[in-house]
Amino acid sequence: MASPCQVILSPNTDSRPADSGIDMIVVHNISLPPNQFGGNGIIELFTNTLDATEHPYYATIAHLKVSSHFLIRRDGQLIQFASCLQRAWHAGVSSWQGRERCNDFSIGIELEGSDDCAFANAQYLSLQALIDALKKRYPIRHIVGHSQIAPGRKTDPGPFFDWQRIT
Ligand SMILES: [Zn+2]
Fold it and tell me: Counting CB atoms within 10 angstroms of each CB, which of 10, 78, 110, 163 has the fewest?
C-alpha cells in the first residue's frame, strides 16, 4: 500500500469460491447518515454495531450484514475491512458480462460520498494508489461502478464520480 492503511476487520465476510479469480474492482459510494461525512456510521455498519435509534435512516439498514474490502474517507484515509482473499459483501445481486455474484471475484472499494456531490481530490489520489497496488497483486481486468453491475437497483458511485481520473 502506498500510504498507511488502518485495518478494522468486518465479520461480514466469508471464503471466495475455490475457482474464483479476482479480476474486478467495484467502486461504490456511501455516507452515513446520508450526505454527512466524517462520522463513524460506515465503520459501525460494517462491524454490525450501528445503533438503529441514532438516526431514522439507521433503523432501515442496521440489520444488514454488509462490508467492503476498503473505504476511502474524504481526506483520502484508507481503511481495510477484509482481506482481499476473502469475499466481502458489497455488491449484492449483481452480474457483469454474463458472470453473476460479483462478490465472488471482485474487490469492493467504498468512497465516502454520495450521488449528490463531487468526490475530494485526496480520494482520487488514494483510489488510484490503491488500484495500482491491487493491479500488482491481481489480474484486474474490470473496474466498474456498483450501478453497472446492479442496474436499476444501485446508483453508486453516482454521476459525480469522474471515471477519467482513474486508470
Ligand atoms: Zn454500492
Answer: 163
Per the listing, cell 471482485 goes with 106
Tens-place pLDDT, residues 101-129: 999 999 999 999 999 999 999 999 999 99
d(CA 96, CA 24): 10
Given this model, what pLDDT does residue 3 score?
54
List active site positions: 110
Answer for the pair 165, 124: CB distance below 8 angstroms, yes or no. yes
Q: State the residue for C-alpha cell 481503511.
A: 79
Span from the CA of 155 to the centroid of ligand 1 (angstroms): 8
SS3 133: helix
What CATH number should be reported for the domain holding residue 25?
A: 3.40.80.10
Interatomic CA distance for residues 143 and 166, integer angstroms: 9
- How many domains is the chain partitioned into structurally? 1
DSSP secondary structure, 4-66, as one string: -EEE---S-EEEPPTT----EEEEEEE-SSTT--SSSHHHHHHTT---TTSSHHHHHHTT---
Peptide bond into 33 cis (omega under 30): yes
Q: How far is the CA of 93 from the centre of ligand 1 (A)?
A: 11
Question: How many whole angstroms from 4 Cα to the centroid of ligand 1?
Answer: 24
Quote the domain boundaries for residue 150: 5-165
